[in-house]
Amino acid sequence: MMRLFFCVLALLTATAAQAASLDKIEPANWWVGMKRPTVELMVYGKDIAKAKVTLAPHAGVSLVKVEALESPDYLFVTLAIAPKTKAGELDLAFEVAGQHFDRHYPLLARAPGSAMRQGFSPKDVIYLITPDRFANGDPGNDDVKGYGDKANRRRPGGRHGGDLKGVMDHLDYLEKLGVTQLWLNPVVENAMASYSYHGYSATDFYRVDPRFGANADYRALSQAAKARGMGLIIDVVLNHIGSNHPWVKDLPSQDWLNGTRFHPTNHRRETLHDPHVAASDRAQFNDGWFVPSMPDLNQRNPHLATYLIQNSIWWVEYAGLSGIRIDTWSYSDQAFLAQWSAALMNEYPHLNMVGEEWSTNAAITSYWQRGNHPKDGYVSSLPSLMDFPLQEALIKGLTEPETWNSGISMLYQALANDFLYSAPNNLVVFADNHDMARVMTQLQGDRALWQMAMTFILTTRGIPQIFYGTELAMDPKSSDHGVLRADFPGGWPGDKVNAFTGTGLDGGQRQALGFMQKLLNWRKTAPAISGRLVHYVPQDGVYSYFRLSPAQQVMVVMNKNDKAQTLDLGRFAELKGHQLGHEVLSGNTYSLTGTLTVPAKTAWVLELK
Prior knowledge:
The longest helix has 18 residues, at 2-19. Helices cover 25% and strands 23% of the residues. Helix 7 packs parallel to helix 8 (334-347) and helix 13 runs parallel beside helix 15 (507-524). A hairpin with a 2-residue loop joins strand 7 and strand 8. By secondary structure, the protein is α/β, with parallel strands linked by helices.
């Protein structure tokens, strides 16, 4: 009888021991020499919250805190790392109910100069890529076991098979085009049942989706781009996750998420600034779910805030990135955004980061820029914003009739609002992006207006961003996201049109590509585009402005009219001492004395001589 008792006891003990597990530690590694003095490890495994944690002696590293929350399956372990700690492996031990888990935790050396990396600037042109729609470099990863959203190019909202290797394979095309920064829509895992290709429903913050490739492929792309003079910008989502994220099934704590899928955001950014706002409206904006499949993260939880901060730092350091684009910026908790941006800029003082605040009201957009000192005392460390007010002004300015307060004068009016910004030259300017109808569609297919729009975006103040395929004047004539994010021609075997080689391009596509190549590559050698902007009040549908630096002076003239217009050059003080203007795109030279006749629907870029 006693023997049976001990057998049963042994079986119960073994079963209890087998029940515990240690499945994952995030981040999987850290670095020595970081300004951030601690790293908090999120440890996941069944019943791991009960573990006793020990750290083997390692010079400069100490175990500061071990904390469990409400879930029995998460444990938060904080390590302090002294400034002169040497790279190596930490030995961590976890003991749960008599079961032991030993883990070697890598502390790596940083790449030389990592902290002082240079972010994107007005010298650059950002090329925005939706990876699933650019090029299929590895058909073998189109469908991966365990992932339900299968590749099907016939479905506009489905996966089409583009991947990181596809981008890597065409860096020569991008270099020849003249772009200097690559912004890829998110590439982290999106293990969603459908519509997973866009990347904005993360199910693993530390893993590249295997249908795009592996983490090492992302880092290799960054390194290969850097060798060609191009940086890589990561697209980060701080506000929400995908509904299939493991957190949704096993929350670390009950306050990890805000609200429920039945309480959507009202998308009213104004509620953060409105002095008359109802508190419930403001809470609904911040805490409501973006869409039912995207649970809203509660960054007021300090462990989640730390997790998101460390994740962004990890990717910059791991992949050698030149910048960050932050999705749905203002939807996240305001205090957290200040904390997150300060932490990133403290670690990388010269990094650039651009937030998506989709408001066409410059007063709202400017609120978030570093150094702006709003009335409520909010302190942001975010260097750049997407310039949605200028994008709206560009489309309306080129498509609406000319009156005293409409038409091309809207460009002048939008730029006159630059007094609201602490650093207008650091805003990212664009004619379209992955969330709106393509610029050719917005301009009703008018190629002359498209060329004017591109000339403006590439010569006005700020940092230009162009959407993949814009160089071909792509016009799907739809604002449906799956349609406007069409496959890049030539990115798939068997494509009859191949823009990478030029095969099958029609005359309009060739003209557009040649125009963009010429303007983009001129821009690389034009110091004026980082210089001062001086513009003049538009007259009779003609807008003129100058880009001025000590080394170069450039005049841009945009004639929106259906007929040629003659300018009296006497009003332009910046022309003093300049006799000739070399037009960059045509190669023609014009006299700058007296008058200048500009053809209909034409933008000229004149280097002053």
